[in-house]
Amino acid sequence: GRDRDGALESTSHGKDGTDNWYRSVVLCGGSTLIPGVEQRLQHELTRYAPDGCIPEVYAPPERGHAAWFGGSILGSLAVVSNMWISKEDYDENGPLIVHRKCF
């Protein structure tokens, strides 16, 4: 693997020069349901936050399904319908159709 900062270490570089990033952390995904994750992240973020900044970690109860909800909303928007790829499109163009329609 590559020698890179982890998620917590990379936060120390500051996202926008303010404390806003630390005050708007939202947990989502099934692995965030592991007991103690919210408290652990809160503790670790406090170590990396600028002086005087108290990180806020929000863990909504439905976070285990948040990605599904987001995908469902995205899929229902008319603006993404031009990105849909039919089997016929894929059969005719192969994997390159993804780059043509989605990027």
UniProtKB/TrEMBL annotation:
It comes from the Eukaryota. InterPro entries: Actin (IPR004000), Actin_CS (IPR004001), ATPase_NBD (IPR043129). This is Actin. Gene3D superfamilies: 3.30.420.40. PROSITE patterns: ACTINS_2.
